[in-house]
Write a structure and sequence with these properties.
The chain is built from 15 helices and three strands. It is mainly alpha-helical. It folds into two domains: 130 residues, no CATH class; 241 residues, no CATH class. The N and C termini lie far apart (70 Å).
């Protein structure tokens, strides 16, 4: 093992690399510590983050592909090369040219890791640790019961049914949704329309990009994700048109600094539900229906509610046309999926199993910041309005 020690000892002669690495790591550590202070995280997200975001978006937004995804694959390759080159070095340890190359690779790799950590801290961790919805007073901690959930649930159902009835339809009765570009434009305007309540949303929004690995995302039930390193929003291409407006608004909320999942869910719903466009409203109420139904049903069970509460749900149903719209959209997506080649499809079950573990782990890690807790934000927002 002496040759490994020599490789790393020789790094001392490369002061520029050492200075760069420790500077990057030190700044990342400082950002991590400062982000523990919510006031600092709020200041950074409100004032510094937008500058970084606009600067990166001005460059990456012009690219027709997701640069962040390419960098992710490149990063995975660089990581895989670390043990591979190390094994080769064991056999070529007497070759000065190779050991010099290996030492340089490891130093460069260390600096790249430091840079990745720093950008991750400034562009994701600090905003993530800011106040919920960017307002210290937004979440009061008030406890809600099935009484408030009942009102919220029927509010969602009523608006979902109304939106379903108001949707433009073709001669066969099929709901007509906007093309991707038009839906992006309308969703971006909807986000700006609520910026008087949530100022971080003020501004322009880049188009969302289709992921190269959309089939893998589909197997893992992932609709989209945001790259904090390049400020790009990316989507699973097998996303139906009913869901697309809320997906776009969700990822755009992340883009503007709302990185908690329940925040992005809430903003997506609020913006689209208040839009003048019926298809955005339909998308919003459709997305929230399952969240609120599950929360209400769980509360009824926990409170040992009598049968009348469950009968009331059956007597106030979502109209059948809504489910027909869902099935039709699902069929359209299946057609697109079947037209494509899927070289890794034999591993789809493995991806699905990994995703199940991943979703459960994320829920445990994020806790009250997970997707499901959007219902809590809805209860807080409508307190004094609906009940």
């Amino acid at each position: 093992m002496k040759f490994i020690g020599k490789i790393w000892t020789s790094a001392a002669s490369h002061r520029k690399f050492l200075i760069l690495f420790f500077t990057l790591a030190g700044l990342a550590a400082a950002g991590w510590l400062l982000s523990l202070n919510t006031a600092f995280a709020d200041f950074w997200t409100d004032n510094v983050y937008p500058i970084i975001c606009r600067g990166l978006t001005a460059v990456t937004g012009r690219l027709p592909f997701a640069l962040g995804e390419v960098l992710m694959y490149l990063g995975a390759l660089l990581v895989l090369l670390v043990p591979l080159l190390g094994i080769i070095c064991i056999f070529l340890r007497k070759k000065k040219g190779y050991t010099k190359f290996y030492g340089g690779y490891m130093r460069t790799f260390a600096c790249i890791c430091g840079a990745v950590l720093l950008v991750y801290t400034t562009n994701w961790l600090i905003p993530y640790r800011s106040s919920v919805m960017g307002r210290k007073d937004f979440v009061t901690g008030k406890k809600y019961t099935s009484r408030e959930l009942r009102v919220l649930y029927f509010y969602i159902v009523d608006n979902l049914n109304e939106s379903c009835r108001d949707m433009p339809r073709d001669e066969e009765g099929t709901a007509v949704f906007h093309e991707k570009a038009e839906a992006e434009k309308l969703a971006g305007q909807a986000l700006n329309d609520i910026s008087h309540e949530f100022p971080r949303l003020k501004g322009s929004y880049p188009p969302i990009k289709e992921a190269f690995c959309s089939d893998v995302l589909d197997w893992m039930w992932i609709g989209g994700f945001t790259y904090p390193y390049t400020m790009e929003t990316t989507m699973n291409k097998y996303t139906d048109r009913m869901y697309f407006p809320t997906l776009y608004a969700h990822e755009s909320a992340h883009h503007m600094g709302y990185y908690k999942e329940h925040e992005a869910n809430f903003i997506s719903y609020l913006a689209c539900s208040q839009s003048d466009d019926v298809s955005l409203r339909y998308s919003a109420y459709s997305e929230m229906y399952d969240y609120v139904f599950d929360a209400y049903f769980t509360a009824l069970i926990a409170e040992n509610a009598d049968d009348s509460a469950y009968e009331e749900i059956d007597d106030h149903p979502v109209m059948q046309q809504y489910f027909e719209d869902l099935y039709h959209q699902s069929d359209l997506v299946a057609e697109v999926y079947n037209e494509d080649d899927h070289a890794l499809e034999e591993y789809s079950d493995v991806a699905a199993d990994a995703a199940e573990v991943g979703w459960e782990t994320q829920s445990e890690v994020l806790e009250e910041y997970d997707y499901d807790y959007v219902v809590t934000l809805l209860l807080e927002y409508y307190d004094g309005v609906l009940y």
